[in-house]
Design brief:
Rossmann fold, 3-stranded antiparallel β-sheet, flat, VWFA domain-containing protein
């Protein structure tokens, strides 16, 4: 069964357009937003675009929605595809997936400029790869390529005179450098049914944040790694390119399975700082038992389930992996769970509405990165 999204709720439509925008660009901005909402369903997105066109007069007789579709084909944003029912239809391409991620990044982290060689810096000096202009005495183990010859020769002259020139180990200085450390991040996204409960779409903003974070890391911090997983009754990894198609399922919330998979993924990473981001709106309501069956309880907080979550949080803490929880809800008993969970991990928690979620994720990404380097 196909669910249509109600864009009148939550979809902000701006009538302003930049004077230099071409008819294609103007429609493409809206199309990217719609295709995210429809989880990659091209036909549904175009249906919405036609509705919006009727209401806001987006096109003219010179440039119609059909012209726009033709341009999408020509520019390589969509392609013909045979659907599961055997009928032909249009599907978005990898080029569109990338464009959606970039749009999410611009929307959520708008103030941040992307750069090709991005790396975070730490305040810690030592052997690294970014020059600071400061010098310190040579220490055993410093690479000879780090020795500043000009400064060292100057020291030799001051310390030993210029008559019989001699350069000793005591004269050597090296230029301090900043560590450009690597970070391995796992982003956990709750796709349980509650993410669309009560008619509120919480999965789209969560999805946008994930896409923005993915684009941020791959473009600004290319040395970093990002693994993304989703969790419902079970947990499974997804690829960055899968993000636009993400949909909520008829699932309970198996937070423990999500955390187990996150820790498994991070154990494989060598010599990096590690962290977990968890975006969820619901309390843990499900566990998988050893016999493969599910233990579920949707009423209140079940200690059998929550205690397992706290144990996972402590395990992550022992492995020096901070967990930052983004709770898209404000129920008092959910806050109680997150407080206990955060205490067990000594991580961070944010209780947030749907707006502002991305900004906080970015701030914490930066902060965590700097902190983990010191440890």
């Amino acid at each position: 069964m196909k669910t249509h999204h109600n864009f009148k709720k939550g979809f902000v439509f701006k009538t302003y357009e930049a004077p230099t925008q071409s008819p294609f660009d103007k429609l493409f901005e809206i199309f990217k937003e719609l295709i995210t909402h429809t989880s990659g369903d091209f036909d549904e997105a175009i249906e919405w675009l036609r509705e919006l066109d009727k209401e806001y007069k987006l096109t003219t007789s010179e440039y119609t929605i059909d012209d726009f579709i033709e341009d999408l084909k020509t520019k390589g944003y969509i392609r013909e595809e045979i659907k599961p029912d055997g009928k032909g239809g249009m599907a978005i391409t990898a080029k569109t997936e990338r464009a959606i991620r970039q749009a999410a990044l611009d929307q959520i982290f708008g103030a941040i400029k992307r750069s090709g060689s991005g790396n975070h810096k730490s305040k810690q000096m030592g052997q690294g790869d970014e020059h600071t202009g400061d010098f310190r005495n040579y220490q055993f183990g410093d690479g000879l390529d780090k020795v500043s010859m000009t400064e060292s020769l100057k020291n030799a002259q001051i310390n030993n005179g210029i008559g019989d020139f001699s350069l000793t180990e005591d004269d050597l200085v090296v230029e301090d450098t900043m560590h450009k450390s690597q970070m391995s991040t796992v982003l956990m996204i709750d796709i349980s049914h509650s993410m669309i409960l009560y008619g509120e779409d919480r999965i789209t903003p969560a999805k946008k944040v994930a896409m923005a974070l993915a684009e941020l890391i791959t473009t600004r911090y290319p040395k970093d790694t990002l693994d993304i997983l989703v969790f419902g009754n079970d947990a499974w990894p997804i690829k960055i390119k899968d993000l636009p198609y993400l949909n909520v399922g008829p699932y309970h919330t198996n937070t423990v399975a999500g955390l187990q998979l996150a820790l498994d993924l991070l154990r494989r990473k060598r010599n990096t700082n590690k962290q977990i981001f968890m975006i969820t709106d619901g309390k843990p309501s499900c566990l998988r038992l050893k016999d493969g069956s599910y233990y579920k309880d949707s009423n209140g907080l079940n200690p059998h389930i929550t205690n397992k979550c706290y144990a996972m949080a402590q395990q992550a803490r022992k492995l020096h992996i901070p967990i930052t929880t983004f709770m898209i809800a404000e129920d008092p008993y959910l806050m109680q769970f997150v407080q206990e969970f955060t205490k067990a991990n000594q991580g961070k928690a944010f209780y947030t509405g749907i707006k502002g979620l991305g900004e906080m994720i970015f701030e914490d990404y930066e902060t965590n990165r700097k902190k983990r380097i010191k440890g």
